[in-house]
Amino acid sequence: MLKLLIVDDEQIEREGLQVILQKAFPEVSIAQAKNGRVAVEMVDEFKPDLVLMDIQMPGMNGLEAIQQITNIDPSIKFVMITAFDMFDYARQAIKLGVKDYLLKPSKVSEIAATVGKVLEEIEEERKSLGVLKKALPLVETDVVTQLLFDHVHEVHLDMLVEMLDIPSTDESFVVSILLPEGGEKLYSAVKEKIRQLGSAWVGALYGRQLPVIVFRKPDRSFRSQSISLANEILSLAKTSPGAGWFVGIGSVCSSLNQVRQSYQESLIATMDTSLPVKYRFYSDVPVLGSTEEKSLTKQRERQFFDEIRLGKWDLIRLNVTELIRRCENEGAELLQTQQRVLELLWIAARVMSEIGVETETPFFSYQSQDFRQLRFETDRLLVHMRQSYEAHYEQLEADTIHQIKKYIMKHSHEDISLETLGRKVGLSPIYISKMFKEKLGVNYIDFLTECRIEKAKKLMADPEKSLKEITFEVGYHEPNYFSKVFKKMVALSPTEYRKAVLGRKG
């Protein structure tokens, strides 16, 4: 129910307005305040959506009351009530954000029309906000997906982040949560738990793996915040037991542009889930070789991710063989080396799963007796994984991109996410994002935005349609956000573009 507060120092004026408005809008809850001070005091309890504010009142005048009420709740809207000789004052108030004004005395029809117009606007904003809240989880998972897999366009990242009603800080890190089999049933519970703990963006669930971008809390150490988060997540295992719970924690990075590296580190931290404590920091992962080799080894790990996604199997084989050779030359134990190679192959299988390639989890069929046997068995596993990768790409229909483009063009006015597209064509969200970037040279949000803006440009040629109507019709829920996107794409604001188009038609 909408709530309206009438503020006037004259009781007869308040009573008269309430009678008129209650008759015109019987579904609206109406209250009265005899002056500006009382109005300010009533805001917290009554929570009005609209305030009819007299300007000239003893003590606190109307503009002073509006300023204080706005500080309490910026979403409240105002209509000024003024005598004729206060006309210029009312115009000044409108410049300060007041929606409209009424002159004393006003006709009943004028009062109903003015108030009705603002109430209708409030209703529209409520509906838009409701739709936007439903769309935000889609925005959140898509932002995470694109940041972690390097498919994002900087222009749209800033605007998408603006839409997320989740505080962020300059420093962030990634945790990768491994869930038990059937983890999709636990997704909501894990997401709710993370929401309760503070600012973080939760990604989409890929198989058993759930990536989360966590923002650093300035009043806590990184290690303390991470351990607390991991323990809270793992506490869900008490109510949902099952093998597989594990949390890998990447290093802190100073900007979202570097968060992909933290994600890769968090995955590496999940390689050995047999540890008694079911979380591990990337910085605690043992590195084979000398101290001087550690930084090079970590660099090779990061390259390994990219090589798998790009299908550079000859290079993958070369690097894994080089790892075995290096361990052998340094006198590492055979069993330790085999475990290290197996961990890398597990990571490879997990990355393949992310991009939609199904492959069996690699295991050595026997304990190698020497490094020669280890090389042979590793080659066998790599060949099998390569065959799965190549078979997947051969099965993809040549017109997959065409299908997706056609779907986006037809449904551009809807809330389309990577997961929506994935279900449509039977591919993983990450693979679709990757395919767009590689095959079309654009991010899928770029293409969706282009479709919406082109549709908006056509609609602007119709003078009967308002910019607000066009905003909703092309798929945006917030006019200010639409205006920002439009200006970035067209180099003109919607108003400027419309004037130019209608001017040419005239």
Q: How does the SSE layout of this entry go?
A:
Layout: E1 3-7, H1 11-24, E2 29-33, H2 36-46, E3 50-54, H3 62-72, E4 77-83, H4 87-95, E5 100-104, H5 108-148, H6 154-163, E6 172-178, H7 187-197, E7 200-202, E8 209-215, H8 222-234, E9 246-249, H9 259-268, E10 279-281, H10 291-310, H11 313-329, H12 334-354, H13 371-395, H14 400-411, H15 418-425, H16 429-440, H17 444-459, H18 467-473, H19 479-490, H20 494-505
Parallel strand pairs: 1-2, 1-3, 3-4, 4-5, 9-10
Antiparallel strand pairs: 6-8, 6-9, 7-8
List keywords for this structure.
5-stranded mixed β-sheet; 5-stranded parallel β-sheet; HptR; 20 helices; Homeodomain-like_sf; two-component regulatory system; elongated; transcription; Rossmann fold; 4 domains; single chain; Alpha-Beta Plaits; 58% helix
Please, could you describe this protein's structure?
Helix content is 58%, strand content 10%. With 506 residues, the chain is of the alpha/beta class. Residues 289-293 have low confidence and may be disordered. Helix 6 (154-163) packs antiparallel against helix 19, helix 10 (291-310) packs antiparallel against helix 11 (313-329) and helix 11 runs antiparallel to helix 13. It folds into four domains: 3-106, Response regulator (Rossmann fold, 3-Layer(aba) Sandwich); 166-284, Alpha-Beta Plaits (2-Layer Sandwich), CATH 3.30.70; 291-395, no CATH class; 401-505, Orthogonal Bundle (Arc Repressor Mutant, subunit A). 33% of the residues are buried. Strand 3 (50-54), helix 3 and strand 4 (77-83) form a beta-alpha-beta unit. The chain has a five-stranded parallel beta sheet with strand order 2-1-3-4-5, sandwiched between helices. A five-stranded mixed beta sheet has the order 7-8-6-9-10, sandwiched between helices. The chain starts with a strand and ends with a helix. Residues 3-119 form the Response regulatory domain. Keywords: Cytoplasm, DNA-binding, Phosphoprotein, Transcription, Transcription regulation, Two-component regulatory system. It is found in: Cytoplasm.
